[in-house]
C-alpha cells in the first residue's frame, strides 16, 4: 500500500499536531514546517505528494510561499491552502498564486483527507504521462516547464494550469465551464478573469510563432490542436 508524503505548513502547533495525528492514523507520512522560510526550504529540497499550506504565517505568508514554490522552484506538487477567512477574493488570490484547492478553518478532518486524496490521485494520474506534447509545444508536468520550438514559455501559475488542462484534453474541446470548475472549484470569478488568462496564454504560446495552436470556438470553448 502506498503511503503519501505530506508537508504541513502551519504555525499553530496545536492544530498542526491534531492534523498530523489524524492523517498519520490514516496512513500518511507527515513532515512539518512552522514558518515560511522552513516551508520554502523543505519544498525546494524534499519530495512530497502534497503540501497543506496555511495562509497566515510568520515571516512570509502562505500566498507568497505558494507563488515562489511555483515560479522559483518550479514545483508541481499539489498545494491545498488553509484560510481562516471565507472570502471570495482570498480564495481567488490563492488560486492565482498556484494553489490547487482550499479549505476554510475550522474544517472537518475527513474533508481534509478527502481533498488531499483527490489532489494526489489527480497528480499521480498526470505524472503517468510526464510530458504532454501538441505539435511543437511541450509541457513537462514534473517541473511545470513549457517550451515551444525549444524556447521557454513563461506563464503564471494559473496560465500553466490552463495549459496543462488543454494539453491533457487535446485535441478535444474544453468548455469554459470545465476550465472554471477545474481551476476554481465552486467559486464564480469575474467573467473577465478566465478571458484575461486565455489572452495571456495565447500571447505566450502562439504570438511569437508562425502557426497558432490555441483555437477558440465562440460559445463552445477552447482546444489545443496541431495545424494541418
TrEMBL record:
Where's DNA bound on this chain? 129-226
Domain Response regulatory residues, every copy: 5-120
| InterPro entries found in the cross-reference section | CheY-like_superfamily, OmpR/PhoB-type_DNA-bd, Sig_transdc_resp-reg_receiver, WalR-like, WH-like_DNA-bd_sf
Q: Which domain of life is it from?
A: Bacteria
Q: Name one GO molecular function term.
A: transcription cis-regulatory region binding
- CDD domains named in the record: trans_reg_C (cd00383)
Query: Which Pfam families does the protein's record reference?
Result: Response_reg, Trans_reg_C
Instruction: Point out residues bearing the modification 4-aspartylphosphate.
Output: 54
Ranges for domain OmpR/PhoB-type come to 129-226
Cite the PANTHER family for this sequence.
REGULATOR OF RPOS (PTHR48111)
The protein here is known as: XRE family transcriptional regulator
* Natural source organism: Methyloprofundus sedimenti
Amino acid at each position: 500500500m502506498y503511503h503519501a508524503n505530506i508537508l504541513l505548513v502551519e504555525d499553530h502547533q496545536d492544530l498542526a499536531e491534531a492534523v498530523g495525528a489524524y492523517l498519520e492514523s490514516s496512513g500518511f507520512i507527515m513532515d512539518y514546517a512552522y514558518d515560511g522560510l522552513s516551508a520554502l526550504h523543505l519544498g525546494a529540497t524534499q519530495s512530497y505528494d502534497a503540501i497543506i499550506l496555511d495562509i497566515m504565517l510568520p515571516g512570509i505568508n502562505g500566498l507568497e510561499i505558494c507563488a515562489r514554490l511555483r515560479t522559483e522552484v518550479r514545483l508541481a506538487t499539489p498545494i491545498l491552502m488553509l484560510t481562516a477567512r471565507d472570502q471570495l477574493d482570498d480564495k481567488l488570490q490563492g488560486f492565482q498564486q498556484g494553489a490547487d484547492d482550499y479549505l476554510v478553518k475550522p474544517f472537518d478532518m475527513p474533508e481534509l483527507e478527502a481533498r488531499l486524496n483527490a489532489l494526489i490521485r489527480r497528480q499521480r494520474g498526470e505524472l503517468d504521462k510526464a510530458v504532454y506534447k501538441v505539435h511543437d509545444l511541450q509541457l513537462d508536468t514534473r517541473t511545470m516547464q513549457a517550451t515551444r520550438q525549444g524556447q521557454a514559455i513563461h506563464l503564471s501559475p494559473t496560465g500553466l494550469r490552463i495549459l496543462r488542462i488543454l494539453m491533457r484534453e487535446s485535441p478535444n474541446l474544453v468548455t469554459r465551464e470545465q476550465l472554471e470548475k477545474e481551476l476554481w472549484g465552486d467559486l464564480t470569478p469575474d467573467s473577465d478573469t478566465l478571458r484575461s488568462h486565455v489572452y495571456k496564454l495565447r500571447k505566450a504560446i502562439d504570438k511569437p510563432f508562425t502557426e497558432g495552436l490555441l483555437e477558440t470556438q465562440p460559445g463552445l470553448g477552447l482546444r489545443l490542436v496541431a495545424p494541418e
